[in-house]
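In this supplementary section we document a worked example of the pipeline. Step one takes a protein sequence of length 293 as its only input; no multiple sequence alignment statistics are reported here. Step two produces a three-dimensional model, which step three serialises into structure tokens for compact storage. The input and output of this example are shown verbatim.
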Amino acid sequence: MPWHKSFEHTYEFVAEGESEPTDYYFEVEEGPIEPSTYNGATIEESRMWVSDDGTRAAGRVVDGRHAWEFDSLLVDVTVDGPAEPFVDDRPSYLGRYPLSGATGDGWKGDMPWHAADDPEHTLLIDGVGIIGKTSYDFRVSGDAEPTNYQGASINDDTSIVDGRVSGSLRGWRDAFEFSGDLESLTINGSARVYLDDERVDPNEYGEELDHVLTVVSNGSPASYEVSVDGRIAAIAGDDSSEAASIRDGRTAVGSIDAGYHRFRYSGSVTDLAFDEGTAFVYADQDRITPDDY
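The serialised model returned by step three reads:
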């Protein structure tokens, strides 16, 4: 069904393809102002605001398009971010604002979404004084970003996708600010973990790692890969802390030519394979082989 405009004017903030947020504010001479789906725009109630008298509106748009409708003269516009503004389908010249009758900048800022998006917590993975590599994987319910908190470094190879963070460190610190809750945390190595400056046990987050997987060398070199449908983590202090790595919190990959590697995991083992050689593998007390999967 074609879209039909209900008011005389439209104003759009177009940020399609932009990863950085744009905060915008505008004011009209007389209300009302109403959000619109004009030109395929989306209405995000949690990130759009209109004053009680209907003369001022604000919003935050990321990788999308917001549109508004109104009937009277536009007297003020502020755009903070990469979005492009359009009035009645034409580029809006922001240099002409504010016009006579604008109420100033005092009302701009402190919108509901600002508080919701502000980082609430810090997570510090501290490998200072620890020999060997520590890899980590955690998920939060909000947004996460790296920080130099406590002198931490920011690594280009750290992955942050939809609240899930994966990375590794050796002999130093990685730190992150995040909003929402810490939903899961997997540490492969001996680094210490601090949530809001209090040391935490990774096993307290997400599913309980109530099973033990043991890989025992048969005296010859072997490379293995084992996956579970829950979470898996090396047992701190074991050889596996240095000789194995964890991918996506669910798969352990390692090499062994002597001794044993141990992991704690939740759920069930879903896959076991050897790229080189063989070894004895036990899920709790039961021996398992690649032929079982």
